[in-house]
Every structure is written in C-alpha cells, then in structure tokens.
Design a protein that fits this description.
By secondary structure, the chain is mainly alpha-helical. Helices cover about 70% and strands about 5% of the residues. A two-stranded antiparallel sheet has the order 1-2.
Length: about 150
Amino acid sequence: MKSAARLYAVQALFQMEASDQTMDAVREQFVEHRFGATYEGDQYAQGNIAHFETVIYEAVNQQALIDQMTDRALAKKWPIDRIDPTIRAIFRAAGAELVKQNTPPKVAISEYVDVTKAFFPEGREANFVNAVLDHMAREANPDAFAE
C-alpha cells in the first residue's frame, strides 16, 4: 500500500507544481477522489493515506534542502529546475523519505525507481533516477551504506 501512496505522492507533487494549487487542496483531491476510487470500471489502488500525507508534507516543507541535495547529484549544467517535472516530483518525493530517514534508503530508491518505470516504461529515466537517488541517499544517510 505504500507503493501506491508513493505513486500518488509523485502525482500530487507534480499537480501542485503544474497547477499552482496548495498542498492541502491537492491532498484533499487525492484522498477523496483517487485512493480506492473506481472510474470507468477501473479501480485505483487504495494506498496508505498516512504515508502519502507524510511524503507530500515533508517534500513541500523540506523542498529547499531536497532540491539542493538533488542539484549536488546532478551535472552542474543541469540543475533541478531544468529536469523534467515528473522526474523532479520523483526526486522530491524520494528526497522526503531520504531526509526524514523513516524508510531504509535502499528501499526508498528501489520504490521510486519502480515509480519512475510506471511513468517512463521504455526510457532510460529509471537508471538516471537510480543514480541520482543513490547519491542523495548517501549524502542524507551515509551510515546506511557503511560496511
């Protein structure tokens, strides 16, 4: 159920940026109209609402820190504001979990690589996201990678 919450969090962060809606407005839309909803015979996953809310809250409130971490992981000529908005939302959602350290870093990376594959099933984006998130995770929690 956390996997669905992560996918919804990325969609919500994208929607907030694209439509300039508030976090509370988007959160309400997702909780009331996406989690477990049925549209035209298709059933949306229920997802973990508490995890969804934590991810978007942390992503919004820690955005400056997360964006700085992301920028350090990217090539100098490609800061986060030049990245595809969906990928940017993925970095922010994953960054929220990496900074908060409530999810093991390797789990967060794997989950958000899977989210990336849902949006970009045939592209190289998953490898790109994996590399950037690995860099961010090592910065946020170096002890998790010590052997």
